[in-house]
Amino acid sequence: MSNNEIEMSRSNFNVDHIAHAVPNIEDAISQYKRVFGAKASNIKIIEKQDIKIAIVSFANLKIELMEPLSEKSPIASYLQKNPKGGLHHYCLSVDDVNQSYEDQKEKKINIISEPTKGYHGRNLYFIHPSEVCGALIEVEEHEKE
Ligand code: CO
Hints:
The protein contains 4 helices and 8 strands. An 8-stranded mixed sheet has the order 2-3-4-1-5-8-7-6. It is about 25% helix and about 35% strand. Bound molecules: cobalt (II) ion. Cobalt (II) ion binds near residues 17, 19, 89 and 138. Cobalt (II) ion (CO) binds next to β1 and β5.
């Protein structure tokens, strides 16, 4: 494909962030700082998912670091399988998340949950990993300025 053809066939989904599950968020922040000189946001507690998060910013990408706070957290079972941490999901954003959800349902795509509000107040849903070669994908609404 030429660059022009790639441009023409571009999806309407934008990349929003990649989520990295880690066993210790403070250690993860120092590693990102040491290796890439990257700064992280303050650490926030998200009670709904029982996790701590921090965002590491690169010029064109945000990485969401997530550490589970207890065994009940959805991230805890992931870390049991990947004790050193690993890439947990990536997130794509769209203009209208409810419309996107309806479109996926119509295509009979396996969606994990109905659109719900994320910690940032934007609506999101998850596509089951069986749909796209084992990758867990979050779809959320574009950040509005
Ligand atoms: Co995410």
